[in-house]
Write a structure and sequence with these properties.
single chain; alpha/beta; 13 helices; His_deacetylse_dom_sf; HDACs; Acetoin utilization protein AcuC
Amino acid sequence: MSQNCAFVYSEDFLQYKFHDDHPFNQLRVKLTHDLLRTLGALDDRHIIAPRMATDDELALIHDRSYIAAVKAAGRGELPETVALNYGLGTEDTPVFPNMHEASALLVGSTLTAVDAVLSGRVEHALNLGGGLHHGFRGKASGFCVYNDSAVAIQYIREKYGLRVLYVDTDAHHGDGVQWAFYDDPNVCTFSIHETGRYLFPGTGNVNERGHGAGYGYSFNIPVDAFTEDESWLAAYTTALREIADFFRPDVIVTQNGVDAHYYDPLTHLSVTMKTYRVIPRLAHQIAHEYCGGRWIAVGGGGYDIWRVVPRAWALLWLEMTDQADVFGPLPAAWRERWQPLSPVALPLEWDDPDDLYPPIPRRAEINEKNAHTVEKALSFIRRSHSNQL
């Protein structure tokens, strides 16, 4: 087990809670933490307590008027009509008590991970409480109040002066991060996600390539609904390899939403745990090949909190700490502890069965369409490379 990694964690992450029936449930972080502890793959030497982001840090990305509105909303002092102008009080992002404090802690936890890595204390750091990639400069969106990844990237740029590769494997397009750095040639964003034809936020087309000096540093691969492991991984591995070689980053930040899984209730993709073994493996390789090992990973989407998220996020940590050769049954003690609370039967093993879902009728068509999308997404790199030869 590598000790050169940090796991940022606090049970205070659970304070980021809209209401009992909301799909965004930070209990999934606790479930993952407990699974890793039970497995013996995480101990006190890895744990770093998070801090709360300051207003000045939040203002690296967010308008101060918006920060003030979030504070007022959390105190019950923001009129509903005003709140809606800021994306607060919607069905996706309802107001809850102490909203600012809970949200600022998630941002601060990602900044804690950044400083742990870039100070040289560790090579890799994981903050599963983060990954809220839909937050905008002056507006909440898609379960996200503040955008911890965007704040962290700007923090890296200003404090450390490093070039950042941001990789987003959430089923939803990483819109908030993309738009924050759309004109910045020192931040390269890559999002692979379900096409916006069927899914929030409806953006992330291949022709979103950046603006001004940032043109050519934004990459999107919108895969078709019902995409399976083979096609998803072909797109991811081909794109990330070519993008990393093109951009040659100083540090990699990965957003690890796990809502592309077949079980996820909010999306329409069909990947399994096979994909969630490969995603961190390639990111890990890229970190060492281009970034001197510097890798900051955050959480993200994932709405089957019982069957999918703990396994997938545990596999992320296991890869990060060189313990990824875990197969077979899940720890019985973990299953016995949580099964009484789970509304579904917990999985028996780390990996999914081969017959998890019935055959996809349009498989060949979907695979062909995705391959064509990859070609279009990477055409800028390939043309640039051809011109240099």
